[in-house]
Amino acid sequence: MIVYLREWSGRKDSFFASVVRGEERVRALPLIGLSFRDFPQSAARARAALAVAKRQPKGAVGRALKYHLIRAQYNWSRRFFSCHPGAVAMCWNGLTGSRRAFMEGARDAGAGTLFAELAPFPGRMQLDPAGVNAAGSVPRDPGFFTAWAAGRADRQGEGWRAMGAALTARASRRSDVGQAETTTLGAENFLFVPLQVPNDSQITLFAGWVRSVEGMLDALARASAHLPEGWHIRVKEHPSAKTSLAGPLARALEAAQGRIVVDNRTDTFAQVRASRGVITINSSVGLQSFFHDKPVIVLGEAYFALPGLVRPAGDQPALDAAMAEVETLSFDPALRAAFMNYLDEIHFPRISEDADGRVEIDPKAAKSRILAAKRAALA
């Protein structure tokens, strides 16, 4: 049986419906049930899920209520899947708050799991038994990809670039952040920093040593002192962020003494193209910069934070050193080709989308993910 949480979004629910098409037993849950009979792990699971909830409650009372809600949801999920051996739990993202409690309950009951999320490329989706983004199943060993591509011209070639053919900058939801084209950036020496949504799970879970977008700005301000003469860091806020980072940005600009510039108007990929490299915590723009053959510095946890693909910078001294060596930043083109061809062929399943926003996954890809989730549960 495949059990998934409804999202009340036509796009997401149509995707789920296409994944389970052909399965004999399917159950779509409108919400997560509640059970107040604890398991030994209930308290720890609820604390961990609450700590990374996207909407953090205000005040002690609100926090206590949400904690007990998540705890009861974990209990219900674990109890439900314990009664349905062989089931697979599926939900959107599944790494934070109540969805995390649902998926943790399923895993602790021995069920398979499937985590869905948008992919960083048009016409693709994430559907992974392990998780999404840095929690997913992409191998972390550069040698894996070179071995996977060895002896196969198609896995070493440029076929992966087709994934970026329809890639465009995200439309802005903010009046102070735009996507205007410009032709005036080519003569400047700068590194581009596309900021991320501060409360996104990519930040709350995988920001690493910088811990937050604000922490990243502080680290960049310190590191900017190591840039060669005539270089600067160019920063753009995320077009979907609901709140402005004007305060932290002002502090970073003051500390950097002219070596950081904020450009919220110019098109994101226009800035990528004009840059000499990109710095990110783990933004998809970092990965998308591969299409423009840019060196990338990664500060946080990311499935593409592999030496050779990018330059991982795991602490402040490593970031300082990268700034001092900015004129010689590079990457391994052969490793990038193997890695991106792997994402193209193996990791990100193809989808189609009609004019009404209904999404269909490739049936073979859906079946393979379901089987992988079942195998993982038995391992």
What are the main properties of this structure?
single chain, 3-stranded parallel beta sheet, 379 residues, alpha/beta, Rossmann fold, 13 strands, 5-stranded mixed beta sheet, 2 domains, 14 helices
Verbal overview:
This protein has helices at 10-20, 42-51, 59-82, 97-108, 142-149, 153-156, 201-206, 213-223, 246-256, 268-274, 284-288, 316-324, 333-347, 363-378, and strands at residues 2-5, 26-29, 88-92, 112-118, 125-128, 189-194, 231-236, 260-262, 278-280, 296-298, 311-312, 351-353, 359-361. By secondary structure, the chain is α/β, with parallel strands linked by helices. The strands form 4 sheets. Strands 2-1-3-4-5 form a 5-stranded mixed sheet, sandwiched between helices. Helix 11 links the parallel strand 9 and strand 10 (296-298). Helix 2 runs antiparallel to helix 4. The two termini are 18 Å apart.
